[in-house]
Amino acid sequence: MRIEFIETGERVNLETLNRKPFFDSDASVIAANIIQEVRSRGDAAVAEYTLALDKANRPTAEVGKREVERGMRELGGAMQEALMEAADAIKAFHENQLPTSSFISRADGSMVGTRVTPIESVGIYIPGGRASYPSTVLMNVIPAKAAGVKRICIVSPPREDGTLDPAILGAANLLEISEIYAIGGAQAIAALAYGTETIDPVDKIVGPGNVYVTAAKRLVSGDVGIDMIAGPSEVAILADEGADGTLVAIDLLAQAEHDPDAATFLVTTDETLVDDVIERMEQLLGRSTRKEITKAAIDSNCFAFICDDMSTAIEVINDIAPEHLEIMVDEPMELLGMIKNAGAIFLGPWTPQSVGDYMAGPSHTLPTGGTARFSSPLSVLDFIKRSSVISYSYTALSNQSRHIVELANAEGLWAHGRSVEMRFEEVD
Fold this sequence. Notes:
Blueprint: E1 2-6, H1 25-41, H2 43-54, H3 65-74, H4 77-95, E2 102-105, E3 111-118, E4 121-125, H5 134-147, E5 151-155, H6 166-174, E6 179-181, H7 185-194, E7 204-206, H8 211-220, E8 225-226, E9 234-239, H9 245-256, E10 263-268, H10 271-285, H11 291-301, E11 302-307, H12 310-320, E12 324-328, H13 333-336, E13 344-347, H14 353-358, E14 384-391, H15 394-410, H16 414-427
Parallel strand pairs: 1-11, 4-5, 4-7, 5-6, 7-8, 9-10, 9-12, 10-11, 12-13
Antiparallel strand pairs: 2-3, 3-14
């Protein structure tokens, strides 16, 4: 753990946080080549990359009903119960987010408003590799369904035997998603964006992935919509002298075990807490089932900032703009109003980030790498479109025509002005 002391009025040097850049030139070159191959050769290119990169040989990327049923038989009752309970909480939260169309009528007979409609089709990327993420199925599919998206398909990299993890299939089956493809990486993003003989293209792609998935999403953005450019996961814990060092330690490890590049930050006013946390982390790490990954993340990307006072500590948090923020102080609600930048905020010692990852309700797809300064968690809003609606009467256009023509002429747009003037010439 790297330790820094922050005095009152001092700011964090963000360059020292060792965050991975969102743009990876090497990954972008590889992703661009894969995208071009998939666009040119479709399913054949997808199958070749699946064999070469995932070591899986499948007759088709499409996951059929029998394969889903076989996976469901492997899923225990306790897991099915957990998925259902999580799905209910996520659905209840996101259905409450749905905005409605609205219109304003004016006395001159004009009407303006906003019409809200769902995106027609969405492809959702579910990561594989180091772990299985059925929770990501729930956290991405349910907001899309709440928004009213008609077509939702899932892509996820297969295991070496060619199958998908039963928990992923179980989550998809629970949500009645029947369009599932066992493909991953940049080839999956290309297939979703441009289509193949098997896969129809979608309008938007969401879901986290590795550096090649992220590079591919960046490259296809514009041809299709994307949710965000995501980096390694991270947590910051804001704690005072009353925080339990063991809980702080295990919550830091819980984030670090995601990925060797995961970042963890402890921001505190209590120097003795840092010493306690370091000791507890060493003890707990020896019992981890993901010790190698967790230790790599802690060794490379674990920081402690010891601040002179809580106001300075909060400024450090806002500068970091973490993906997850746990506030472990006596009265966390009193600090909430001062937090400007965080993807998800967890209040008090009984609210570890794990509840947000699985069960609380809000989507766990969050802005990373400091992008919480300007980005928001995935929500129903990511799956809708807003169209402006405008209707003018004769009187309304007449009242504004002179000003419209004046502005059009100032911009050198002759036809813009004449399109207004000629309407009154024809009427008169």
